[in-house]
């Protein structure tokens, strides 16, 4: 489901609108065509998945569904700007730290840089690339004051296009 909504919707013959929404029936048809565990998937299954998901990556509204964040699609998904907490966190690898110091945080293969509201989640995300990741603290209040825009991904994730290193501290 994430692959269809976040990364390659065209492979499933889905067309996301400018906010990333697609009719749920179209997604269900595309998933059923994949066969296997998806052959009998229905709305109730999707609702149960979304209700039990810890990371709240997807959102259902009426007869539409979308991924809230994490897109790597070439067409940007437009999100509304929001006011983040004053401090956010980002977990990263030791190998990436030198580049981040020089270039700041960039989205890499995604549409946005992902930031966490809590250090534990940021550290967990950083472990995907490094068994002992570095924890960066983001001065989001200063970044907003300097004109940077943030978007709420979910209760624990905030997104921004990029962030200069001047708003980052180690630890």
TrEMBL record:
Pfam families: PTS_2-RNA. GO terms for molecular function: NAD+ poly-ADP-ribosyltransferase activity; tRNA 2'-phosphotransferase activity. Keywords: NAD, Transferase. Signal peptide: none annotated. GO terms for biological process: tRNA splicing, via endonucleolytic cleavage and ligation. Removes the 2'-phosphate from RNA via an intermediate in which the phosphate is ADP-ribosylated by NAD followed by a presumed transesterification to release the RNA and generate ADP-ribose 1''-2''-cyclic phosphate (APPR>P). May function as an ADP-ribosylase. Belongs to the KptA/TPT1 family. This is Probable RNA 2'-phosphotransferase. It comes from Propioniciclava coleopterorum. The gene is kptA.
